[in-house]
Amino acid sequence: MARILDKAAVQPRRSFNLATSFTIRRSPGRTRLATIRLRIPVSKSQPNRVELVATVGVRGVTGIAQILFRIFRDGREIFNTLQGIESTGSEQNYVVTFQAIDRNVRSGTHVYTVTAENRTANTRADVVGPISFSGLAVQTSS
Prior knowledge:
There is one protein chain. With about 140 residues, the chain is mainly beta. It has one domain (about 5-140): Jelly Rolls, CATH 2.60.120. Helix content is about 0%, strand content about 65%. A hairpin with a 2-residue loop joins strand 5 (about 65-75) and strand 6 (about 75-85). The mean pLDDT is about 95.
């Protein structure tokens, strides 16, 4: 049985909106999408895990962009996934959702950040919304 230690969620954009879209930066630059903070209390006997879920609405503008989504804990990368985003002549609008699990996180307050970067030259992809990012810290049995 798991016991909830902390939870956090943000939704910087709640819907698809071309008028407020912004371009995903080209690698090695990164576009910060959302940040949450989770507190892990001191525990001597039980392991824990942090379950993280991110959803990002993306639109392909030119070419086939390869978007690298990353999750960082306290500035250190703990997860990444790559998503191809096509543009005109095919699908253009995507909702990308991914989940990561961070195990046995030390006690204290931790900052989790989700970012995106475009890995493909001469392409463009924009964030059009929605954006949401949530985390649930649970104490697990051994």
